[in-house]
Backbone:
């Protein structure tokens, strides 16, 4: 092999990778926050709602989960503005897509979490005279969040990896930065050999932090 | 092309995943860590990054794949890592007593695996495996990014000609949905079919 490794160009333009990683994380955080709101409200609607609401929620979940994320990214970025006549920038469009995608995954997570709350807790809430809303806010939600925390953590790490798809609509996150260096320097092995560990280290770092959080709030 | 890529990847990752999955559960110590590291590393890298890496970097080592082969390699590597975990979970869910009982009646390792462990592990294996197949079909949309004309790129090309993006994206989404939804319904039916076995 007559190829000499040279990381010079990578370090010179490392800010593209570094800030790319920061943007990736930002995208994942914003999307999971919006996703939690979507997922939680739909899960509550599903648990308490009538048949029509249930099938609507199920349709949303099944549709999003059975279609490639890449297609959704294109659909929101190129498709929707073409009929609505308004435009948003690539980053906004990707956040919308990823949030809707996260929402669909989280509906299932929260639904399982709500179903796993011990009946006795809710009955105890009733017994001390809490209203439906009070029970929801002080009893059901805190218990549910402790139950679903592991799944929520996995969903977050998985979303962080999915932010790599934002590169296809030119959102300057980590993969986009790597591609930029790739096409401008042809330092191909070097750039991917730096990028992949960055994803790995961040992903497992997040997992580690989340596991510590889990241990702290674990339901005994 | 989407189905072709997916089918190849499903076969390769099934074979690789089962071999390595059995290796990680029953294999010797020196086999455990390499497989553990393989599985953890490839599950931790975004699929897109893996596809670009294999597509761009392997030719530099003198390995010249067509882009079709390189995406099949990338997707198979990724999916195998997931299937190892599925196999591991299925095998470890079998009570130890089953294996010990089989030993007691004098079965060899291969016999224990084929006649005792595998039939019980299969029903734990199938539902998550079909999820992995659905993920493969969805993941195969990424191969359009290295110029393979699969369903995704075909949609893009038609849009490039006709300039009517929305209906075509929706049509494409429906096509993926039909493929994947039938897979996941099949998975649910299988689960029901195997549910008669007592825990």
Residues:
């Amino acid at each position: 092999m007559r190829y000499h490794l040279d990381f010079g160009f990578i370090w010179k333009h490392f800010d593209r990778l570094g800030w790319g990683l920061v943007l990736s994380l930002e995208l994942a955080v914003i999307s999971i926050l919006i996703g939690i709101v979507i997922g939680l409200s739909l899960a509550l609607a599903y648990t308490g709602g009538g048949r029509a609401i249930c099938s609507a929620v199920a349709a949303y979940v099944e549709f999003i989960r059975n279609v490639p994320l890449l297609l959704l990214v294109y659909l929101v970025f190129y498709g929707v503005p073409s009929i609505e006549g308004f435009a948003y920038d690539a980053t906004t469009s990707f956040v919308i897509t990823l949030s809707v995608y996260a929402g669909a995954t989280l509906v299932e997570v929260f639904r399982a979490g709500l179903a796993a709350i011990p009946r006795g807790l809710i009955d105890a809430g009733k017994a001390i005279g809490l209203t439906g809303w009070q029970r929801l806010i002080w009893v059901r939600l805190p218990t549910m969040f402790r139950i679903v925390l592991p799944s929520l953590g996995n969903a977050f790490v998985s979303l962080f990896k999915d932010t790599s798809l934002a590169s296809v609509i030119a959102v300057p996150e980590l993969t986009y930065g790597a591609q930029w260096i790739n096409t401008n320097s042809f330092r191909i092995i070097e750039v991917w050999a730096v990028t992949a560990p960055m994803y790995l280290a961040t992903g497992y770092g997040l997992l580690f932090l989340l596991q510590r959080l889990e241990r702290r709030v674990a339901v005994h | 092309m989407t189905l072709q890529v997916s089918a190849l990847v499903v076969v390769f990752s099934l074979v690789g995943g089962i071999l390595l999955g059995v290796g990680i559960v029953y294999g010797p110590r020196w086999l455990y860590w390499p497989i553990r590291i393989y599985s953890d590393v490839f599950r931790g890298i975004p699929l897109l990054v893996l596809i670009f890496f294999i597509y761009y970097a392997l030719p530099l080592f003198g390995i010249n794949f067509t882009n079709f082969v390189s995406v099949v390699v990338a997707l198979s590597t990724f999916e195998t890592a997931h299937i190892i975990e599925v196999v591991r979970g299925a095998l470890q869910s079998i009570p130890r007593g089953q294996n010990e009982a089989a030993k007691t009646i004098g079965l060899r390792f291969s016999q224990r695996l084929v006649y005792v462990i595998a039939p019980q592990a299969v029903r734990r294996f199938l539902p998550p495996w079909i999820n992995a197949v659905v993920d493969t079909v969805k993941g195969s949309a990424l191969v359009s990014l290295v110029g393979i004309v699969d369903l995704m790129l075909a949609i893009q090309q038609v849009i490039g000609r006709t300039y009517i993006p929305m209906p075509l994206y929706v049509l494409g989404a429906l096509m993926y949905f039909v493929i994947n939804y039938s897979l996941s319904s099949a998975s649910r039916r299988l689960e029901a079919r195997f549910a008669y076995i007592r825990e």
